[in-house]
Design goal:
Number of strands of chain A: 0
Oligomer: heterodimer
CATH architecture of the largest domain in chain A: Up-down Bundle
Structural class of chain A: mainly alpha
Number of domains of chain A: 2
Order of helices and strands of chain A: HHHHH
Number of strands of chain B: 5
Mean pLDDT of chain A: 89
Low-confidence stretches of chain B: none
Largest sheet of chain B: 5 strands, antiparallel
Largest sheet of chain A: none
Shape of chain B: globular
Radius of gyration of chain B: 17 Å
Radius of gyration of chain A: 44 Å
């Protein structure tokens, strides 16, 4: 039992004892003495003094209730903010993962485009065609990626078109003619070089974004 | 490499010569968007690069070496606000393409046939 509980118990016992003694004295002298009047006056005084204390204790109880309510609301608000922050962190983490996946796909596309040029330069046309198909499919798939800017999507759409034309060109003018001529025709080569250069720029932008500091906490 | 300075005049002369038939444009190779016109002293070549929507005009000597060139792309138009060069090259490319592929004649013949067949149906 704590110290304060013990003190309150003693006070209660003293009060009950005092009340019992007063009642006993007043009862004994209720018909033949001034004791009854003193006891009546003392009771009235007690009631007058006790009433404000009772009202005060009621107010105090209400105030404590309001304070508890305010603290509960504050705790709920903090919990909600923590949930929002956690949601924002999760979203940001997912965005970064999506960016990394996109950067990976762009790297694959760039590798395939460079392979078309390299195999073309060595006149290994079946390999060049294979990589050209892969690059065309990748460019066509990536051109609708919402993480890219409008001009980047346009560039990929143009790249997909250029790669499709290059495929036809390789088949008709290199493979079907069974030629050992080296290199793509100038315009096709320029298309692919331009695509590769643009992909480098996009990848650099994505890399810079993924290295940026995390967003400010949600309030 | 030197850049073409009086592009406006060059494009106008080429357009005029193309229209009166004194300059003949020929496709460079199959499936390419590149056309060249041969002269006694060299060759002029206009090409369209799909990626970046770039137009490239080159002047070549008799050995096929590029002696001067000018190019313009949508990116350059947006950044430098140079619409003139881009629209001139675009116009010349269209003109060369139409002549080299005989697009206007072929389209005219096709439209004539469609009109004729539609007329046959009505009668």
């Amino acid at each position: 039992m704590s110290r304060w509980k013990l003190i309150w118990l003693l006070i209660l016992l003293l009060a009950v004892g005092g009340w019992a003694a007063g009642f006993w004295l007043a009862y004994l002298h209720r018909n033949n003495s001034e004791w009854a009047n003193y006891a009546g006056i003392a009771g009235l005084c007690l009631a007058i003094i006790g009433f404000p204390f009772t009202i005060y204790s009621l107010f105090e109880t209400q105030r404590a209730g309001r304070e508890a309510q305010r603290q509960a609301a504050e705790a709920a608000r903090e919990a909600k903010a923590a949930v929002e922050q956690s949601r924002a962190d999760t979203k940001q983490a997912l965005e970064k993962v999506a960016l990394m996946l996109l950067a990976g796909d762009l790297e694959r596309l760039q590798t395939a485009v460079n392979a078309v040029l390299d195999f073309g330069d060595h006149a290994i046309w079946p390999r060049a065609l294979l990589h050209c198909r892969e690059a065309g499919a990748l460019a066509a798939a990536l051109r609708v990626n919402p993480l890219l800017r409008e001009n980047e999507r346009t560039m990929l759409a143009q790249g997909a078109e250029a790669l499709a034309i290059a495929q036809t060109y390789i088949t008709d003018n290199r493979i079907n003619k069974n030629t050992t001529r080296r290199g793509l025709y100038r315009t096709h080569a320029k298309n692919l070089q331009s695509l590769a250069m643009s992909l480098t720029v996009v990848r650099a932008r994505l890399s810079a974004i993924s290295l940026e500091a995390p967003h400010a906490p949600v309030n | 490499m030197p850049q073409l300075t009086n592009l406006n005049d060059l494009v106008l002369w080429l357009e005029e010569a193309t229209q009166n038939g004194s300059v003949k444009w020929t496709p460079e190779e199959e499936d390419t968007d590149s056309f060249s016109a041969a002269f006694d002293s060299g060759t002029v070549r206009i090409s369209r690069i799909i990626v970046g929507s770039t137009y490239l005009l080159e002047m070549l000597d008799l050995q096929g070496r590029t002696i001067a060139s000018v190019e313009s792309s949508r990116q350059v138009v947006e950044n430098a606000n140079d619409h003139v060069t881009y629209s001139l090259l675009e116009r010349l490319h269209r003109c060369a393409r139409n002549q080299a592929l005989g697009a206007e004649d072929k389209m005219g013949a096709l439209l004539e046939e469609i009109r004729r067949r539609a007329g046959e149906r009505q009668t």
